[in-house]
Amino acid sequence: MKKLINDPKNVVAEAVAGIAAAHPDLVTVSYDPIFIVRKDAPTPGKVGIVSGGGSGHEPLHGGFVGSGMLDAAVPGPVFTSPTPDPILAATIAVNGGAGVLHIVKNYTGDVLNFETAADLAGAEDIDVRTVIVDDDVAVKDSLYTAGRRGVAGTVLVEKIAGAAAERGDDLDAVAAVATKVNAQTRSMGVALTAPVVPHAGEPSFDLPEDEIEIGIGIHGEPGRARIKLEPADAIVDRLLAPILEDLPFASGDQVLLFVNGMGGTPQVELYILFRRAAEVLAEKGITVSRTLVGNFVTSLEMQGASITVLKLDDELTELWDAPVQTAALRWGR
Amino acid sequence: MKKLINDPKNVVAEAVAGIAAAHPDLVTVSYDPIFIVRKDAPTPGKVGIVSGGGSGHEPLHGGFVGSGMLDAAVPGPVFTSPTPDPILAATIAVNGGAGVLHIVKNYTGDVLNFETAADLAGAEDIDVRTVIVDDDVAVKDSLYTAGRRGVAGTVLVEKIAGAAAERGDDLDAVAAVATKVNAQTRSMGVALTAPVVPHAGEPSFDLPEDEIEIGIGIHGEPGRARIKLEPADAIVDRLLAPILEDLPFASGDQVLLFVNGMGGTPQVELYILFRRAAEVLAEKGITVSRTLVGNFVTSLEMQGASITVLKLDDELTELWDAPVQTAALRWGR
To answer: Could you point out which of B23, B116, B143, B307 has its C-alpha 20 to 30 Å from the C-alpha of A315?
Structure first.
């Protein structure tokens, strides 16, 4: 295993220190317990938004802290949920009196620890609402999950809920729009290689040189099928079919099409996938009116990608377009 | 070799089609010859800016086409210079009457083909100026280069020259600021693995499981030394020392610190490198006043990173901060 790290046990703390050094205009960092918080938090009267989960998926979640998106991100150890402690501390730090929304990817550990933190925050008179993200259509239950996994769609939930909070929506409304985005989002991924967790030092699973895993999770959890490598267009078709059947998306829909890299796949390949996915949607009469392409929800250095489709309406489009200023996603003013 | 592609010979054309499908608000694409051009080009009275080079370094250059940066990007085959033909066509497409700046990474093929295109454009009465980027301090001459190579600093030249053109500077002034950025920028990189060129189908070079290459080029060209893997902090020190000696940077300087991923390195590692680089600069009394972290100048799926330091002054800082709207870099209005 070759990695640009020092001691595997310091990976998260050192990376977070790097984020603090790189983005002092956007965030400040708490080291004990570890969380990343928007520089001007709390914003009085604004709903606070906290997300988090195991590290190794960067820029998720720390790269999305800033104006118009998250108020705080709580990174756990690599591929391991943060404990309730830092989640509670982050929740307190971002509470501006209008309550706090927790956006939680659906993994058993994350759900449990965010729930405990929400209970503890409640005991301190902070109104906490929780939205669980479970956009992955690949498998019904998985290695670390009862029910569907939360994967790349999490970025869309965080962006749109963040915009709703920024414009002054109350906690009920912000939770409702986050719930709606999750309900209208579907994702599925593919892996060509396995990630290497620093303290483990070897690939999380074996994948032969001529095989790929369809329906992979973002921790390398098993998907639907292990198949021989196919041309990119055939792989896109395999990922899109279950996505489009599941909602279902229909002719006339407006969607956001998001092609996400898992960390180790060159951008040129992501655009090849995007091209085919846009073609398939056009053939079905679905209009791609918003797009996102890049490495946003990764699995360390895993080679692979995922496709996410979000069914838009006027409200979601307006919130998607709203200004955002974070390390990994920014536009407008 | 596993890649998310169809036929290796269609990689660039299909990726460019993906860029066109993903970013219709920013760019349009010419397929014969292939180049990517800002949607509203040419802008009458504005200096046009064209860059380009072999593909496989995305988001360089196509991801930087848009308001406040490039007017056109010309992608050659993977790791191979574009011919003069598409460079000329792009130059004509962006000429708004105020002349065109070519920003060229210092590789023999690129320099020659851009020069030929500039001559042909001159014959059509387009005033073309050329700035060669050669920010890599690793080696004096290299596999494809007489003199220093152009690497990650290219992004900084493109951003700042783009801002100068956008505010209405004339061709002399835009060329002068691009020349100044290049003169004040130094970079050096490290590789942990080799990239795999699609049509070759195997790694560009062999790098044993416990070794890294210090001073690597962005096509995997040899660097200064092949050494055993070291902790990240030691590697940063090895990359920064020649950078800081070369300009030389001095106590009291304001700099932009840019940690660039080569494509296959997780973002968490880039922030670990950033943390150490910022520490070293602080120890030397150098103030990091602007930052950039991420995969901007890549070498396909190569694992590795580079560090770039740009000595700032008020003018360069103002131009860096100016609004930019491209696929890979955007902020402001």
So the answer is: B23
* Per-residue model confidence as pLDDT tens digits over B11-51: 999 999 999 999 999 999 999 999 999 999 999 999 999 99
A235 and A151 together in one domain: no
Nearest to A272 among B11, B63, B270 (CB): B11
Q: Is residue A333 part of a domain?
A: no
3-state secondary structure of A67: strand
DSSP of B41-58? -S-TTSPEEEEEEEESST
Does a structural domain hold residue B66? yes
Chain A residue numbers with beta carbons less than 8 Å from the beta carbon of B291 are 21-23
ipTM for the predicted complex comes to 0.97
- Is A330–B331 a contact, with Cβ atoms under 8 angstroms apart? yes
A283 touches chain B (CB under 8 A): no
- Last residue within a domain, chosen from B139, B166, B184: B184
Regarding whether A211 and A173 lie in a shared domain, the answer is no
**Residue type at position A27:** V
Mean pLDDT in residue range A300-310? 98
Distance of residue B326 Cα from the nearest chain A Cα, in angstroms: 10
Q: What digits encode the pLDDT tens for the residues A26-68?
A: 999 999 999 999 999 999 999 999 999 999 999 999 999 999 9
The boundaries of the domain holding residue B57 are 8-184
- Sorted by sequence, the CB contacts under 8 Å of residue A186 that are 6+ apart come out as A135, A137, A153, A242, A243, A244, A246, A247, A308, A309
Structural domain includes residue B278: yes
